[in-house]
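Hello K.,

You asked for the raw outputs rather than the summary table, so here they are, unedited. I folded two proteins back to back in the same session to keep the settings identical. This is the first:
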Amino acid sequence: MAYDRALLHTAARMRGIKTPSQLAREAGLSVPTAWRIWNGVGAPRGDHADRVADVVGIAPSTLYHRAEVAEVAA
C-alpha cells in the first residue's frame, strides 16, 4: 500500500502545520520521522499514521490507498 501525501499536506495546512518540524511537534514524533512521512520516504507505520492523522484531523485509513500496478506486456 502507498499513502496519500497530498491529502496529508492539505489536511495539515488546514490545521496550520506547514513543515515537517511542526508536524513532529504536534504529533509527538521525532523530526527525522516526521520528515520521512512528510516527504514520502516510505509509508508511516500504524502508530505513526494514527498520531499524524489525529493531529491533522483525518482518519488514518484515508491516508492509505492501493498503489496502481501497471501490467507489463511479456
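The second followed immediately with the same parameters:
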Amino acid sequence: MFKLLTVGVVSEYMSCAAVILVSTLVGAYAAQGMTPAQWLGGLSAVVGAIAWAVIVRAWPDTPPNTPRA
C-alpha cells in the first residue's frame, strides 16, 4: 500500500524538480550566450521536462487486475 503511494508522490516531485532544474540550467546558459542550435536543444529539453510533468499528473491509473469468472 505504501509503495504505491510513495512511487506516485516521488514521481510527481521528481518531475517538478526536473522542470525547475532544466529551466534553471537553460536560463543560465542562455544568459552566457547560446547559438541557435543550443537554443533549440535547450528548448527541447524544457519542453521534454514539462511534458514529463504533465504525463505524470494526467496519465490514468491502471485498474487493478480482477479475475474473470
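The chain has a mean pLDDT of 85.

Happy to rerun anything if the numbers look odd on your end.

Regards,
P.
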